[in-house]
Amino acid sequence: ALDVLASRAAGTAERSAPLTVLAREWPALEATLRVLEEQLGPAGARQAIEAMPRPGPQMTATLLFFMTALRVGDVRAWLGRNATQALERAGQGRLLDSLSDDFRTLQRAADPSETGWRSYLIPVAWDERRPIRLLTRRERRDGRDGRSGKPGTAFLVDLDLTNIGPFRLDGLIRNELLDLLIRTTKPLPTVMRRDIKALFDGTLERTGIIGRLSFKASPVMPPLPVDLDA
């Protein structure tokens, strides 16, 4: 009976999910992780998907790897051989197909919208179920005061953290200049703002970038330029 229930639980994610669902969670990926834990154990499952973004020194590299795999549209290349073979041995071919369909949905979201924004929904191996929402747009104008300027890239990193709540990085980078605004719905504690500022200044010193950091708290977070939940 336990085997049958486990099989049914995994089968609930065999259908591809629409973007409105993937903007909040990735059911097929969660089912995949459960299958890998059954086949390889918790430690083996983590090693099987080495490219899964997780907090730590390698997070930036794994984020970029996911975005690159998304452009190619090959979920098997992102999962890796060990994870793919473990799913196939477990008879989860339909789950792999569902993952591939979801990957194509995420790939389409990363295409420029009518306003020029690209949307990346990036899963992360932590306690937060909702993926990182990363939006980017190539800026031809300053975007802050409307005056012409050198081309740059605007970006938004949208998170929903358990202890803090909505948390957003609103940035504009042009050449070696970076403007970064951290938005929250409640003011961050003084100690946290000081620690973030120290990390920001340390990064500027290592990279040679000139930047400004500011904080803004408002009861309601401004809507994203692309409605991922509609």
Please sum up the structure shown.
The protein is of the alpha+beta class and about 230 residues long. It has helices spanning about 1-10, 20, 25-50, 60-70, 75-80, 80-90, 95-110, 190-205, and strands at about 120, 130-140, 150-160, 165-175, 175-185, 210-215.
Q: How would you characterize this protein structure?
A:
By secondary structure, the protein is α+β, with helices and mostly antiparallel strands. It contains 8 helices and 6 strands. Strands 1-2-3-4-5-6 form a 6-stranded mixed sheet. Strand 2 (132-141) and strand 3 (148-161) form a beta hairpin. The protein is globular, with a radius of gyration of 20 Å. The two termini are 39 Å apart.
Order of helix and strand elements from N to C terminus: HHHHHHHEEEEEHE
**Major sheet details:** 6 strands, mixed
The secondary structure category is alpha+beta
Total DSSP helices = 8
If you compute it from the alpha carbons, what radius of gyration comes out, rounded to the nearest whole angstrom? Answer: 20 Å
> CA-to-CA gap between the ends?
39 Å
DSSP strand count: 6
The parts where pLDDT drops under 50 for at least 5 residues are: 1-12
Q: Give helix % range.
A: 40-55%
Strand content: 15-25%
Q: Strands of the largest sheet, in order across it? A: 1-2-3-4-5-6
The coarse silhouette is globular
The oligomerization state is single chain
Mean pLDDT equals: 84
Topology:
Blueprint: H1 2-11, H2 19-22, H3 27-48, H4 59-72, H5 75-79, H6 81-89, H7 93-109, E1 118-122, E2 132-141, E3 148-161, E4 165-174, E5 177-184, H8 190-207, E6 210-217
Parallel strand pairs: 5-6
Antiparallel strand pairs: 1-2, 2-3, 3-4, 4-5
Helix pairs in contact: 3-6, 3-7
